[in-house]
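The protein record passed on below.

***
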Amino acid sequence: MNRLPHWDMTAIYPSPSSSEFYDDIALLDKKSSDLFSAIETGASLETLIGLKDECDTILITLDAYTSALLSTDTENPEFIKSSGMVEEAGVRYQKTEDAFLRTVAKRKDEFSSPLLSKWKKYLESILVEESHLMSREEEALAADLSRSGSSAWERLMERVTSTISKDGRTLTELRLLASDKDRAVRKDAFEKEIELLSEHRAAIAASLNGVKGTVLTLEKRRGWNDPLERSLFSSAIDGRIMESLLSAIKSSLPVFRDYFNTKAKLLGLDRLDFFDLFAPVGRAEKTYSFEEARKTVIEAYSSFSPEMGAFAEYAFAHNWIDAEPHPGKAGGAYDTSFPKVKESRVFCNFDGSYDSVSTLAHELGHAFHDSVVKDLPPSLSVYPMTLAETASIFGEMLVFDHVLEHASSDEALMVIESFVQSAAQVIVDIYSRFLFEKSVFDERRTGEVSAERLCSLMLSAQEKAYGDSVGIKHPYMWAVKSHYYSEAFSYYNYPYAFGELFALSLYSHKNEQDFFSVYKDVLLNTGMKSAAECAAIAGAYISSPSFWEGGIRLIADYSKRLESWL
């Protein structure tokens, strides 16, 4: 495999030590001061929102830039320093942000002005958010302490898991072997992963306890009933929608357990173990060069929309993608946007598998979503996690259909199984992660949760999700999923299941006339409407379990097709 690409970040800032970077930190301070002055002098709400958008555009760009750099080299002193500088700037800005929220909420009688109509959802959210603020002094202290508290715990987890190694392989490299065709290799990598995490579990458990303890303390002081209530508000859904989703997921578990049993037979096993979940099936051994992956994604996107195809081609041509795994680089994949320059970047660890190609399509789907809303200010373009997965899953499905259309029988087996495998992760494993996080919050209320107990809670959650269709399970999944370590957003799991099933519903209409315009309209409104209102644009009603069951039926149909290869 030729050397994989690294992203070009110079369009954002020449470097984290550049004058442009430092100038923007100073500019954020100035814009923050301007906003604070406008608040004190009673400027119109439209003016205040505009000034707030200017501040947020700079801060989001600064934060995305330093976080992206740090994820490629988690021990780089320059990246660590610049990340700290942005954190400090954010803390300074917090005083103004706090004053903005309180001031806007007090002036709710002005919300009916026609000039503010496009900010309806934004203003309604501010009312809820403001009602859950502590005093100014307490909020300022919480923001200041986050640097040495929850944010520090989050960084510790990332640094530990991105740098530890066993027998010359990093944790990221060991986890990539989960999709190796040789079961002995998978099993050995899994055992080394468990051993490695066990050796470092004290530090990682301390990180998780630190973050979850902080969340519980702050959410209680802010008047939220529990972290899930706060999460649902951030996700722009209500408890009724959440219950309909969970009900559909629980009802779908037999479908996925049948799939796990089918996969075991395809692999010649009596039953899967956790290290078999990502095993390739069939005789197809196709691997993709990065150039082949690029061509596949562009062609798949173009088949649905020339505009999407041109977007993907532009992203590849302008080095938006950081693809090479290496020591010090964090695991996983993500897309991040930089509103100041109206561009995105994609982070991944490409290994030549079909899954890697699918991941590229997924993250570029996020980037396309960013491009649809790039001309809107943050107040109208920042969308919730539930809707964030819409474009990414849609992108995955475009590649899935494109590859399947040109596949031989062996390749079709591999592609279909990969699709169902991915869906199983997004439905079944996500369900286990949701159950685990809920149990951690329940126990953390009464004290710290030991690493041993965290493992026990994880195994219990996996048992409820996977049942006996998977034998050996993964007690340390809590130590490798960075989402658990975010103070800003708890339950960073169910939105993926929401997004998967919502996107599959949208995707079933992709061949309808003018659907691309409907699809773009949904994406465009994700920061301006609730999840239910966005769904309604495409004629979908998400409060009913039957809506979710449509996506599950599609997955079940493909799962059933796998039996023809037995």
